[in-house]
Amino acid sequence: MAEGTLYDGLTAQPHHVRAVAEAGRLELSQDSGWSDSVDPALLQRIDAPRGMLRLGRSDVPGWRLTVPAEAEAELGALLGKRERYGRWIDRVGLVPALVIGGAITASVVAIGFLAPHWLAPHVPMAWERKAGSAVVGDFGSMRCRDDKGQRALETLVERVAPGATKGPDAIKIAALDIGIFNAAALPGGYVVVLKPAITETDPDALAGILAHEVAHIRRRHVTEALIRELGIGAVIRMFAGNVGANAEQLLALSYTRDNEAEADADAIAMLKRAGISPKPTAELFTSLSRDEGDAGSSYGTEFLQSHPLSGKRAQRFAASFNPRTHYRPALSADEWAALSNICGSEQN
Amino acid sequence: MDAMTSAPAVSGRSIEFTGSLREYLPIAVTNALLTLVTLFVYRSWAKARERRYLWSRTRFIDDHLEWTGTGKEMFVGFVIVAVFLGLVALGFNFGLPAIALHYGPAAAAVSVIIFYLGLMFLFGLARFRGLRYRLSRTWWRGIRGGSDDAGWTYAGKSVGYTLAGFIAAGLLYPWAQAKLWNQRWNKMSFGPLDFEAHVTSDDTRGAFFGFWGALIVGNIVIAVFTDPNVVVFGPGLPRLVVPLLCYVAIGATYLNYLAAYYRAAAEWTRIGDIEFRLNAEFADWLKFYAATVGLAIVTLGLAMLVYEFRKWRFVTAHLEAFGTVDVDSLTQSQTHAPREAEGFLDALDIGAF
């Protein structure tokens, strides 16, 4: 028998009662003669501080019986199992729930991580072209439009990737009058080269850069990066033609380290097939890595960046140099002169 | 049946939190683990468990509070709201360009304004219903709280007061905040008793102007010191230290305002014969938040697992209630117990009061 306090759920008035477990039921009584008998199936345990056992009734809101914790020995038999983590977790148990949940979470994350790689090849090129033309359209006034220069640029792409500028999935190359040393592959088979990447290099190194960007497009790395960074929704929006707002995001896409390494390997193979020396590209990366060194980066930061450090990339290109091969220049002197002049005549 | 005629006399504090970290830690850790491995689905159940613990270890006069909200109802509320907000975002993303295309930029601008007003309305509604939900799931001596108001009027007024707060460079903000506190709490009840709130900005205005001034002056100083064209006592340290000090000063004055606001809110809110006092001063809040940041840094963020516990302990340690409860007249609440939980509040991440 336990002495306790009962609230009836009607008023806040406490009632002093005796509680007994009898014949599988909870029997309550008072000296006044009042008594009640409760079906144990209706009883619920309720969180209470240490030293108290608190019960509720599923059929009477606010009905609360509080007895000392020692009553557990007698009343405990009437009560069901305590709900701990929530019924769905309790059913399997904490540890199995953690293991199963962990496995499900890991696979969902893995799918999210791998999906861009799997999906990219299946995104129609036509969707990408819409996005790409919208972006290049935005660069209208920045684009370098010298005809001879443009032809030379296309010749250079054809040298490293024969046939690349023709057909429905043609690579469309454009030079932009922007003063940053860079080149980028954009959705829809667009490759842009910024002015310093032409005026501060030589044809062979530029060939290496272009081969790298062409490889990104052919391997669908651009689409992959698009899905990874902007989500599948972005690709669908692209299909809907609503791209203008995303132009800046498209330019800021970055590739995974695996993708970069793959594009480098492709570029090396393309240079080899074209008979262009990989040495100038290697030298370019060496000088870029020296710039990175000046900026205070180190080999340790390679893991933090999507671009492998230029020093490592330089070594890969340099290693592919074969002294016995008879390399030919990527462009003739005339073509290079025209290309150097693509953005106007004040330089070189 | 016989009722006890006199409630047992309680010495000392009327509100006391008896929870311990040793009891709470296993709850916090398993909550965090389960939340992680269920892709955050468990979050609603975790919240329910956490509140069941905190409420049940909180004594008010002679009985402990009880939280009866369930993880399931909170999860359902969250899903409904997530779907709704998703649809709203979709409408904004696709509908707006369509409006701009078909009716011109003026129509698009009007749509944006309507959209933001709508969001403010929903924010107000969420705040009201979140409070109503919490009271309806909070029990004491077998009696619960609630409200018979659906909060539509409050939501409308909250848009008005919030906009008014923005006018006059934000100087009316403390007035708007006090008004809104009263608007919400005057619609709430516990058992048959209505809450009465009469907060005015008299107690908070001064602290707010301090914050407002610090914000203006601080930003000017920061702008001057971070401007590379301005030479300040030579290069180096002042450029870093002075703006940092400004941010600290702005934060401190804001905390001072919050302390004043919650103190006034507690002081001017009552229910039946019960009055409240929150004796947390600026220094107490500062200590609490400094400890929060310090612990988070030292434990690499793990201390945030027990943040809710620490906050509850802090508030209950400083909150006091005075007066008597007439337990005979404290009958069961006849308010409609809302079925929806605080999904919206949760989705928008709005605080407790």
Major sheet characteristics of chain A: 7 strands, antiparallel
**Biggest pleated-sheet summary of chain B:** 10 strands, antiparallel
Strand order of the largest sheet of chain A: 4-3-2-1-7-6-5
The number of distinct helices of chain B, counting runs of at least 4 residues, comes to 11
Number of strands of chain A: 10
Q: Gap between N and C termini of chain A, in Å?
A: 103 Å
C-alpha-based Rg of chain A, rounded: 36 Å
Which runs of chain B of at least 5 residues are low in confidence (pLDDT < 50)?
Answer: 1-11
Spatial strand arrangement across the major sheet of chain B? 1-2-3-4-5-6-7-8-9-10
What percent strand of chain A? 15-25%
Give the termini distance of chain B in whole angstroms: 38 Å
Topology diagram in text:
The complex is a heterodimer of chains A (348) and B (353).
Chain A: E1 2-8, E2 15-22, E3 25-29, E4 35-38, E5 43-46, E6 52-57, E7 60-68, H1 72-75, H2 87-92, H3 94-119, H4 125-138, H5 147-160, E8 172-176, E9 183-186, E10 190-194, H6 196-199, H7 203-218, H8 221-230, H9 232-240, H10 247-251, H11 257-274, H12 279-294, H13 310-319, H14 333-340
Helix pairs in contact in A: 3-8, 4-9, 5-7, 5-14, 7-11, 7-12, 8-9, 12-13
Chain B: E1 15-17, H1 21-37, H2 43-56, E2 58-60, E3 63-67, H3 71-103, H4 105-136, E4 138-140, E5 143-146, H5 152-166, H6 173-185, E6 189-190, E7 193-197, H7 205-226, H8 237-267, E8 269-271, E9 274-278, H9 282-298, H10 307-318, E10 319-322, H11 343-348
Antiparallel strand pairs in B: 1-2, 2-3, 3-4, 4-5, 5-6, 6-7, 7-8, 8-9, 9-10
Helix pairs in contact in B: 1-2, 2-3, 3-4, 4-5, 5-6, 7-8
